[in-house]
Amino acid sequence: MRKTSPRNISGLAPSPPAPKGGCDTGLRGLQRGFPSGMNGINRSSRLTTADIVAAADVTYASGRFEDPSQALNGDNSNTAAGVHTFDNTSGTCSGRTEQLIKGAGRAVVISKHLDREDSSCHDVRPFDDNISTLTDPENESNNNRSGSGRRKRGSEVMEELDHISRTTPFLPSNQGRIRNSSKGSGSNSIPTSTNRLRFHELQLHGREKEVQILQECLSKTLPPPSSRPLASSTTSFGASEGDDKCNMDGMDGNNADDHGDCCHQLVLLSGESGVGKTALAVGAMETAKPLQGSKSGICLWGKFDQAKAMQEPYAAFVGAFQQLVGNLLLSKKEQEDAGADSQSLYQTLQNELMSALDSAERGIMVETFEDLDELFPPASSSDGRVHGRTWRRRQPSSQESHEAKKSRFHNAFRKFIRVIAKQYRPLCIVLDDLQWAGLSSLALLEIILIDPLCSSVMIIGVYRSKEVDETHSFSKVVRDLRQRLKDNSGSSMKGPVYEIHDIPIGNLDMDATRGLLSDILSTDDQDKLDELVPICHEKTRNNPFFLLTFVRSLCDNHYLEFNLSLYEWKFDPEEIRTGTGSTENVAEMVKQRMGYLDARSLLVLKLAGEGAFLRWVHDSIQEAAILLVSGEARRCLEKEIGSTLLEKLSETQLDSAVFVVTNLLNNGTPPATREDRLQLASLNLRAANAAAFRSAVENAATYARSGLDLLPEDKWETCAELTLGLYTTSCRAETCLGSHEYVMALTDEVLQRDNIKPLEKLPLVLSKASILESQDGRFEEAMSLCSSYLKELGCRIPRSGISLVCGTVKTLVAIKGTKKKLSEEFISKLPVAQDPKVVAAMLVLDKYCAIAIIASSPVFPLIAHRMLSFTLKHGLCDASPPAFALVAMLMLAVFGDLQGASLYATTSKDLMPMLPNPQICQARTVFLSSFFTFAWTQPLNSSVKPLLEGYEVGLANGDIDSALYCVGTYVTVAMLAGRPLEGLLDDCRVYFGQMKKLGRERMYIACNICWQAILNLMGFSEDHLTLTGEAMDQEEFLVNTLSPEMESNLCVFHWIRAFLYSIFGNTALGANHAIEIAEWLFKKFPWYPPNFCLPYYMGTSLIDTYKTQKKKKYLKHAKFLSLKLDNYAKKGNPNVQHYKMALEGEMLALKDKTGEATSKLEKAIALATRGGFIHDSALMNERFGNFLMPTDGQRALHHLTVAYSLYVEWGARKKAEMLLEKHKDLLPRPTDVVAGYTISPSTLGSSTHR
After folding, report:
1. Pairing mode, strands 560-563 and 568-571
2. Which of 242, 290, 260 is nearest to 428 (CA)?
3. Helix, strand, or coil (residue 249)
4. What is the dihedral of CA 566, 569, 575, 578, to 10 degrees?
5. Where is this region: Disordered (predicted)?
6. Per-residue pLDDT for 618 more than 50?
7. pLDDT recorded at residue 400
8. How many whole angstroms separate alpha carbon 957 and alpha carbon 960?
9. Does residue 688 contact residue 405 with C-beta atoms inside 8 Å?
10. What pLDDT is stored for residue 1145 in this prediction?
11. Looking only at Cα atoms, what is the longest distance across the chain?
12. Which residues contact 45 (CB under 8 A, 6 or more apart)?
């Protein structure tokens, strides 16, 4: 490159002659970064930049290659295998723990430092100050203008980088430099000189309004001082740079803090590159006045990188957690050095994490965020010897879906954040460059914000506004969050779960620019500033980063010089104006300055530009490095680097660097030979599986597609194993992403091939069956697919005709016979199934059975019995406990045998501990046994907690469908048990929205019926009898349920309508509805739990209608329902006694047996109250009061008043208002205390949204 004269400028400020030290570019801001992201961590199995530089240096020093890039081609046999392990031998902090402790400086700890009077001494070196020479700081001023001196070679450059990382305090590898001011004292201060521009002493300028908003948001995450834990921390931080409008939204919901306005905060800082978004986020936390009373807060920082999006899907969170670990280790070391006996924050947090996360969940977190390994102690065997940490990493099932892995990781992440947020108050996480964040990382952001059980967290999201449009994935996530705000506005939730704040950041105004230049030049000479400020505005538009870069270039090119005799900075305004160009493209300027580096340093920058090994303090510097190589030359370089790494790395090293190597080869020039294409396809499969294991499903799908594109046309004949692996991995990932058409095309191509073994088809069969199940009207296709596959395994299930009838009869007889064998001794002797064909058949049978139940297929009994038979004959597998729970449903539905059903359901729970990984089937087993069996055989309230636990376990282990079934049936059971409606409404909004997001539309529609019923009871709908409102539209629902596959949703709809008719007293509608629906409902869905309460609700409507119309059909149906309740009670259902007693009392009243009726009704009220059925107690008190009204007005008034208070306590405000209006002449205004319940206008509430 031709070097221009400093005075010969065209368009851009020129680069100066290369200074002594030869590296006056972004290298000082280019920090050492390992694949893990920590500065200087020595991991022998990890590839580092130093490895490449060292390998290249060996051959470069020998003089064999004129071009140092040739050192990477693998042709030199004298390079000691070409790759070396880097070791920090010259530093005092050589161990991993010591490096993590030094890295703690990158975490901004909001601590008692802020209370000190000298806290103003903490300042920050701006990002562009890192664009300087790699020399001794004390001699740097002498080298500013010097073009003499030997240029440093690559290895020396890396040594200086390591020296800086070891000796400069608080030097983040991916954040920019944060240090103590030169005004301070001690070793932490960096010496300054009067003839140096004071970039390192800058403060924030022109951002007062934004800082105030950030501090106010942070204060909203703080609980009362008495509830804050104490954390030991020693660092603080600030920043410079970075005015506009700010918008705020809030969301209602429950929060773990429950302290007024305390809630999660999402602050979005947007603007163009270089306006100081990151500096504002970091600097605002330094001066956060609301935190002076907090002793335990921390601010973590992480950055996404466009070039590393594939290899580090959670890059920003990785960086943030590295800071967290470093801070904890620092706290631990300080306490150990001080000899303190009390438990350190490190130990406290470690204990909390060990308690909150099980072994598998800790393994998942460490697998994704490797530095968290420091927080978990190693395992010890019975002999006391330590065996390392691999014990925690749960080996995934070969048939486990990507969605399951993703769900397990999300649940572990959720628990981890809850623990961290509990210990650090406040917890602030800065996520920089969100425009490069993938869907996987954005999902983690959303998990934090919508978690009502997590203590309040502040997340500051920084992104470039020009890089994010409406189609961007980040925009979609923000829209979804705002829609959640809109959907829940005015809800009855106790407080906000999160708020969203938008802060656009623009360029500095003239006053702020003046203040910035005054600090840099250390002058208050307004005349000089009046001359320089307009020029800087003209050249940089007051973009902070461009401004600082421009001022440095003025000094480098001698436009700005320090006069030692006058002791001030001198410049010629006109010379600057005519001799320099604008800095609108600062990357080009930095690139031009990089051109003066020696070949070795340029090689390092070219490698760094690939984004694989180094981190950058500002994107503009990285962009400049990327511009060093472009077009075809860049692709060739990427291929050369990737090929060399692939050749030189061991298998262990390749496992660590698989994303880096794969990306380089994918982006490089296309492979020329068939062998190279197959090798790259195999590498993509390896990367896809690694990404899937880390729950980065989007990345897994991308790698799999890249691998598929590389396969030859005769792929099935020449490389069938590789092809099948790519097809299988792609199907699993794309199924999770909802790419149904693509998955169907892949599965159809594989399943129609005759040379694929049945066991190899299993994941593809399960993927296709899941897609067919989720699509309306395709149940038959799904069942045919399962049936055909089972035939290949030798398992035949008749689907129609005499075979089906005969098989069903034999099945039912066998089930009754098997019941006699079930004993603890018999169950304990069952082995674990070893035959893979049996296990595969059981997994498909389980899927087949689930579809058959939804489709109301008569084949369900045969499938359930076949699963039971396989278990008893071949042993246990993950589908065995659900098989016993399914048989329990048959015992209850076909034989009405509650005891037999309870025995099978109990056995299903007893089998789980006998399995290697019982958590895999726990959620499904809990759902089937707790809802369909134990709701009939045990007190109803005892099923509420297990269903919620099943939801948690299902999410943790990837059984999404079972988890959502658990939480959906939890709401149904809780309604039947009389749980407060307000809490259930909150649960509906949180849990049911998750169903829609995950694409479980049919499940979502069914659950919305209960949700809307709750809204109607609370008065949040226009018509309390019509299920139309926030959750659903009744007319639209009825149209959709015309198809047979939606028939199961009708049972939910009809029991809810019968329930509302009875509660609201619309008995004529209720009676006709009962006559029309009751028999169909009991026959079609005999195991459905609401069926045991429906006889009472329908019966009351029928009796009231008979009283007014005197038609015998109503009385006939009422008697039929009374017998139903009597039958349930005789068979041992503990939840129907109050219904049976109340309906018998109502029937006695029809016969004018007043005394007996009164006794029965009083007993029914007592039983309902004792059982916790507050809603039933309210209804029975109301009906008993109406019954007593003609004969005993005083007692009637008492029972009506109690009914009113119970409706209010339950949360049915609409019903309470209607009761008050109906008896307004009798009931007192709601200010009395009746039956232990306080009745007041505040408890009654309003029928409008709050």
Report:
1. antiparallel
2. 290
3. strand
4. -170
5. 1-43, 118-195, 220-243, 377-406
6. yes
7. 58
8. 8
9. no
10. 94
11. 118
12. 652, 653, 655, 656
